[in-house]
Amino acid sequence: MTSSLYQSSAANTATVDACMSLQNVTISYGKFEAVKNVFMDIPRGRVTAFIGPSGCGKSTVLRALNRMNDLIPGCKLKGRVVFDGHDLYDPRVDPVEVRRRIGMVFQKPNPFPKSIYENIAFGARINGFKGDMDELVERSLRKAAVWDECKDKLRESGFALSGGQQQRLCIARAIATEPEVILMDEPCSALDPISTLKIEETMHELKRSYTIIIVTHNMQQAVRVADQTAFFNAEAVEGGTGKVGYLVEFNDTERIFNAPGQQATQDYVSGRFG
Amino acid sequence: MPTDPNPALNADAFTLRRRPPAEKVVDLGFRQLTLLLASTVAIVLLGIFLTVFQGAREAIATFGLNFLTTSNWDPVNEQYGAFIAIYGTLVSSLLALLIAVPLGVGTAIFITEDLIPTALRDAIGLMVELLAAIPSVVLGLWAIFVMEPAIRPALNLLHSLLGWSPFFNTVPQGPGMAPAILILVVMVLPIITAISRDALNQVPIELRQGAYGVGTTRWGAIFSVILPAAISAITGGVMLALGRAMGETMAVTMIIGNALNFDLSLLAPGNTIASMLANQFGEADGIQVSALMYAALILMVLTFSVNVAAQWIVRRLSLRY
Amino acid sequence: MANPAPITYATSALFDRRPLHFDPSLRRNRFNLLFTTIAGVFAAIAVLPLVLVLVHVLVQGGRLISFGMLSQLPPPPGLDGGGIGNAILGTILVTLIASLIAIPVGVGGGVYLSEYSSRGWFAQFVGFGNDVLAGVPSIIAGVFVYGVVVTTRIFFDQSYSAMAGGIALAVLMLPTVIKTTDEGLKLVPQELRWGAYGVGASKFVTVTRITLPSAFTPIATGVVLAIARAAGETAPLIFTALFSPFWPEGVFSPIATMSVLIFNFAIMPYEVQNALAWAASFVLVMMILGANLLARWISRMAKV
Q: Which of A232-236, B194-198, C199-203 has the lowest mean pLDDT?
């Protein structure tokens, strides 16, 4: 894969093989801009975290990366999101195809009302899986570190699992389709600390094979799992009613937390607001 | 102890610190009154059953279970069998449902799944709701003068193509089972659509996102995730619609032809229990009244079973969503 | 920045990987288009009867509407002219009787279920019975009232009467009114009741002054819809209120109603009577659609 289409916009990541590239992205709901003028190159094979206060648009940006925002009436995107040499928002692009290559794990565990086995097999099947399904189910559950809890009840409903197990089932569901990128929208916000820890371990496993982008409220989590961190903030617009989000800073996680380039980032990571 | 400087805070300003006995009586009386009013439901239900059962006893004693399987309805010789009406009730309502379920569920999907702009969805939803408000008798009038003449060519075509089959071997001549089934479709369609729409709207957004997140198409998500999650409520709604179709009276009475002879053909006139009651009850006397009550009892048992089954399905099959 | 460690990318050998471009010839996309089209056609079919019925009722019935039509008696079979004045009056009267019975009983029953019952076995039984009663075919309600009121001549030795018709319609309205009251009251926040008890209000005062008024909108909406439905009912009236070619002679005599008039006149072989049936349909449909719009307006007013 070459990165010929990738256009450098931020010097700090120019040497990295960019997996996804956001070029002047502005997303609005109806008349209100949720987040504006985002430029960033998300490196391949790394974990990238989006952090920032509530309402800064970090989830909105994440959902824009596999066109999940299409499901929200009135949501519009300006700018380009380049993936694999294509602008994902080109009218010729099929959002279904996009989501098959960019998987997603959601805030609340949302297993399908099917058996554990079917929860995994369903996505693989619609993606045209040609191999051994039993093996794929086992491999995916193992990768998501939930195989031991599931192996004796594959035919039972996905709801038979605890919340943390359900979320790892959803991760297994996402990786079963072998996407190139996995988006995670605050995957641990509904979970207890032990489940959270297990999912973070899972992420460390996964980043060897996938590009992971995670939105998190928890700065420690960003420090623990992310190679790169993007800090978003929101500011009141003059004369407007709401706040509009923007990207403040995007750099190695270590730099963001120890030597940020912006005062706002410094304030946020040191817990002075947000 | 200094006197209270503010007279409004003086306890004597409140003359009702102690509840007067009358207030307690009113309180208790109101409770008993509402209890009595709530019991009305049970009393009316019991009254309906007893009235119909009492009226039917003579016919039950005379005709027994043969009433269900014989088809002569002969007031002159006082011989009664309700097979035609029972058969007609079941066939008309089941066939109507067979047509109405795909139409209603399809419409519900069309107006919940973001296939068209919201304004258009709301407009279609409103129109289906208003269709439910049109009185049955008006639909019957429309069926006699507009619908039946309009569909007659299609029924003739059906006859010429499938006339070899016993279900289509009569020439359509006005009223009959087929137009009655179609008007039943019109009547149960709003129920099925409304209940399916509610059921689909209750499927949580997270589940839809999960389906789209693994890369399903819209209809892939509908068939494999959204419909399975909504199926129990939809099935319950379909059962309610079945109950409604079996008891539906006016429009069917006006268009079904009220036949006294049995005919398998859907193009021939038929009869249902409800339309038999509507036609004959006012002028019947003697054992005919009792025979009609017997038929009414059968209709009640049918609709009761279907409605109870509907409630059971909704309760038992409901998933966690 | 250090170069990233060697990465084993997700293998896609086991999956079909296509370009991102939308390909309408793909099986799944053709399938999608096919089903969207089918659903659209089904929706069009579902809407079609309403449009056709409304057009015919408006055109066939609307053109006949005149002052004479609304104020005269129907003509004897075979003669021209006449109107549906008695039937309009009769429908209003019978529906009014039904409302006067069903609304107090239904609201009271709903209050019991929601405020007093503590959801014990009796309340569950009444709730279940209410659902069963709602599913009883309307003609059976007619049979019931025929057996209890008409044949027993319970009212001043009169058999068929407006009163009997009103009672039959009330039986049909009752479950709806109970259900809307119960559900409307459930929507009232618990804090409001606690607030009233907190200042020492009795349960009676709390229910009648605080709880019921705050649930007014949903209850009123449901009641208006129940009245509209009852006004169009025919089956329970055929052998309770019967019919009359004359002006109403009080609540204990047979009475004409628009719905029974439509039924009787639709199946007569006279064009004059058929036309009167269309005119009555027009008036009835207008009244019922008006009530439906009123119900919508009530619930929208409350949201603002």
A: C199-203
